[in-house]
Amino acid sequence: MKARLILAALLTLSLAPEARGDTVSDALDAVETFAAEVGELTKGLPDRAGADAFQKLSTGRSKKTLSEIKAMRWAEEPGSRRSRHLLESVESYTAEEIDSIKALGGSGADKVRLDEIIKTLTTLRERSLKELRESYGSVTFPAKRRKAVPSVDTSPYEEGPDRGKGIWDR
């Protein structure tokens, strides 16, 4: 019985991103995964390549991007516009991280390692952006119709527009 419950829990937790439909959570996961991978890959770089300063900047960028994405959950209503802004935010963050690693430079073995890091992060970026685009494309939101505002100011108790002069005759 316990095995069935555990299996059911694992199956529900491992739903595809397309089935969840929470675009903000997907973007947060993508940024956190990318930041963790950057931290792991650049952990052993020598300081002569500027690795310490890069670590501080990278942490600051990831925190800033995560806070922007969390703010989008409340600032924008669900839909294609929010999905587009989330995708742009993740895309710009990952591009900035890769560009700053390229700017580290280095020589000899450091250069080879940096090239490997850049290649790994580029494939991770492409994969995560592809997953985000796929999950955003599958999420559809119903269009909300707003209640029309009357163009003539009349009381709801009047019979028609020909009776009285509206607000001036009350």
General description of the model:
With 170 residues, this protein is mostly helical. It is 68% helix and 0% strand. The radius of gyration is 26 Å and the shape is elongated.
Ranges with pLDDT <50 over ≥5 residues? Answer: 7-20
Q: Whole-number radius of gyration?
A: 26 Å
What is the N-to-C order of secondary-structure elements (H for helix, E for strand)?
HHHHHH
Overall helicity: 55-70%
Sheet bearing the most strands, described? none
Give the amount of beta strand, in percent. Answer: under 5%
Give the count of helical stretches.
6
Oligomer: single chain
How many beta-strand runs? 0
State mean pLDDT (0 to 100 scale).
77
Derived structural class: mainly alpha
Shape verdict: elongated
Quote the distance from N terminus to C terminus. Answer: 74 Å
What key phrases describe this protein's structure?
170 residues; mainly alpha; elongated
Write a compact overview of the structure shown.
With 170 residues, the protein is an all-alpha fold. The protein has helices spanning 2-13, 17-20, 23-41, 51-75, 80-104, 109-138.
